[in-house]
């Protein structure tokens, strides 16, 4: 179903909001707090126990004619309440009613079908009261356009859609989140986000597994006095909360054995970037980026982590005696808003390990050589086309744009307008420049893995030297990336992952292997529409 912001607001019963927006550039601002909670209700760092997101089991397993396994999952988006604060419940929107949503975990080559049910109320219970029309994007998956979570391919409350995922890519940490047109920020901030993990045999041999392979969904929030989520995106500039959550828990404490752990860190904040470091000064060993394992481990003292980026990091606790506490801290970056405790993320308390701990060959091993990938072998010389893009804001009252174009322009063109039309399997270099002043923009390119060639004419940062699908474009930065466009034809999106920027309206599309007027059998809105959900549950 194709809808515009105007239509969504009309369906939601509000009419049309005013178009005038005023945003104020920021460098880095510090304040005591953003929440309206009393001191009794405000969570304190390192008081709550760490927890993992629940793991989702398939409801059925089938096999294709060639023997390929297909896992079938069912997820219902529901309004629910969560015990985030120590004294009050907080209303959320969650996949299966939880935040984060359940983790889907499977092996490369096992296909999946996710039956996604919209069991949400008609309108958002807070803030703009917009229609809760959702579109699920599996971020990091090379998915056909009609299953990619195209912003205007929405599922209305009372409807459902089956999303088909091929899972042929190498091992990687990806995630699923709402992508509904113009209200992605409020829906994701309300809780519609979850992890999706692909394994392969090479990764299983190299890196910690099982209980030592730990997902960390990091986000931030602010709260009203009654414990509900508060929302202030500062006239669509961004929302920076004063409470840091890890897997939905404020500043948790995790018990760890004196051995090497692997942490899959997802920045699920809608506007905050992080600069992670350890209180001990110990290095963080980065082994994976958005698109999977890097060619070689990069050991860094800290690293910059933008919204929607994923970094897989090894931390070696074997050097610590039981009883030691190590904190994961946030040094922050330019253009954030920081508060009293946003410099803290979580704590690790080292405890004695079992007698047979050292029987695992990975217990204290940091590999140096990892995995090559096609994306990391691409060079500028492979490119058939070079394109330039500007992420910008023209004046104080104009919307966020890419090359002066907004998603409303795409809608107005009946979804024909595209900034790029690469041929199938062609290679291109894209230069992305940020002269917007006062903001950073994590730019996500759907479908592809890319290699960062340069940042302001210099080599990319050490932690970026792996396959990526989000690139952090800081204030006054210019970045070149190279990518191959495939394996699918069709229309895909590019947007800023500061989600208030995406919603207003920093997003465009490109066409792979299609002309503007070509017949499109993979139409992202009409090829696989949502269907009425007559299951009463």
Description:
- Strands 11, 12, 13, 14, 16, 18, 19 and 21 form an 8-stranded mixed beta sheet that branches. Strands 2, 3, 4, 6, 8 and 34 form a 6-stranded mixed beta sheet that branches. Strands 15-24-22-17-20 form a 5-stranded mixed beta sheet, with no helix packed on it.
- The two termini are 24 Å apart.
- It is built from 5 helices and 34 strands.
- 6% of the residues lie in helices and 37% in strands.
- The longest helix has 7 residues.
- It has 537 residues and is mainly beta.
- The chain has a domain of 175 residues: Cupredoxins -  blue copper proteins (Immunoglobulin-like, Sandwich).
- The radius of gyration is 22 Å and the shape is globular.
Offer a quick outline of the entry.
The protein has a domain at 5-25 and 51-204: Cupredoxins -  blue copper proteins (Immunoglobulin-like, Sandwich), CATH 2.60.40.420. The chain is built from 5 helices and 34 strands.
